[in-house]
Amino acid sequence: PRADLTVGYQLGLAVAEYDAGDRPRVEFYAPAAGPLNRDDAEVLAAVALAGAVGECDAFGDAKGAQQDFADLQAIFDRVNPKLSPAEQQSATRRAVMNSHKLLYGSRARRNDDAVTAVDAAFERGASLPEVICALENA
User: Fold this and answer.
1) Which of 42, 68, 116, 119 is the most exposed place for a label (fewest CB within 10 A)?
2) pTM (2 decimals)?
């Protein structure tokens, strides 16, 4: 949820639900059920893979990413016009790159201040406004 919040907020998604308790989670207001255009799908794809990107960066792999990829496929299934398998693969690569850039900056100038600030806010059980303040001030 920490990486999801960091990426989703930076991409302009409004937070619908947030809990920093024992089982942290964040939910965004997403486009209503039905078809998605490709631009909306790109944003949602970056958020869907943010947790996997963060896990790979922190631990070298993403063992808990199965649900992230299931969510990503659900997003792709809603895109109209439909994405070909090659387009889905390209969109997945872009989502990973976009998530990584929002979480850690460029490869040449790594900056994980936002991730560190959000992690610290979650750890102390901060309210959503406090987490957003920490993110914006990072």
Assistant:
1) 116
2) 0.93
